[in-house]
């Protein structure tokens, strides 16, 4: 039976997210995604008179390729994929998996090698195309969210098809404030962190690059970060699970890193290259439908009342010059039910316990966002 929600999501991706135009070429990559969703995307692309190209992947096969990959093989693959990507105007990737730990036994050196060699493909896609990436609701994701498969699917489509255009006015106001901010102070359990975002600028994320969405990000001046931060959201990176990550900074660099298990692996990742121990992003999340972590960063980084702080690569749109093969969004939820916390800009309290306090920003609080969406 055809699910009309597939059509609704495909329409959003091809209109709002990538704004496809007549004659544009778009690469669609599907990882463990039903054929029906691929079909809906192809039809949505063609309805815009654009030209679709498609790749279909299986996560178990990808794992096997990575376990025994060679530098020569990866280099040849990069050259082919980079040539193809240079011919595209847009890119949509939907990534599902039946096992979030599928790549957990891929040797670390192979993961690092693949990330390093294939990086130019991602860089071209990010810098030169209109792109959007999202997950696909699977039984594994439902388990992560502690929900039934059916309930999680309902949650997924409700979250992903939020009217992001309605968020624009309040997001613009937050951007203006962040663009004018110098000193940021983060407070909370295990967290007392200061840094500057002066003249870095900020970027609105309203359904154009990630789905689900709902954040505004900036970036610390590379050497300005001082203090400690304790993350209360579990995370998975390169197939390994991490909980209770705690970082200590001196002159912008992570000088101590620990977690509840896998501390050695944590430090291995942070030692991937010179930039991995510096921060490449600072962002505030406020999607009202996403309240609890599920070990999936595309969802968790948008959690209402959260912020994320990212070791590794900076985005050129809000750039402190840090370069790394790592870009690891670590999330802290500051709502009262997660221990609370405060965000200060230039000595002014902007958000407390996950709720924006200033008149200009109350439109980003969950009740206001949901109220506006109900009216539409």
Short description:
By secondary structure, the protein is α+β, with helices and mostly antiparallel strands.
Account of the protein in words:
With 376 residues, the protein is of the alpha+beta class. 33% of the residues lie in helices and 26% in strands. It contains 11 helices and 20 strands. It has helices at residues 4-17, 35-47, 59-67, 71-85, 108-128, 139-144, 149-160, 168-179, 263-270, 297-300, 366-375; strands at 25-31, 51-57, 90-95, 130-135, 183-188, 191-196, 203-205, 210-211, 215-218, 226-230, 235-237, 240-242, 246-250, 253-258, 279-285, 306-311, 330-333, 342-345, 348-352, 355-356. Strands 14-13-10-6-5-18-19-20 form an 8-stranded antiparallel β-sheet. Strands 2-1-3-4-8 form a 5-stranded parallel β-sheet, with helices on both faces. A 5-stranded antiparallel β-sheet has the order 7-9-15-16-17, covered by helices on one side. The two termini are 28 Å apart. The model has no long low-confidence stretch (mean pLDDT 94).
Sheet-strand content, in percent, reads 25-35%
Mean pLDDT: 94
Alpha-beta content class: alpha+beta
Report helical residue fraction: 25-40%
Q: Specify the number of helices.
A: 11
Distance between the termini: 28 Å
Radius of gyration from CA coordinates: 20 Å
Highlighted features:
single chain, 5-stranded parallel sheet, 376 residues, 33% helix, 11 helices, alpha+beta, 2 domains, Thermophilic metalloprotease-like
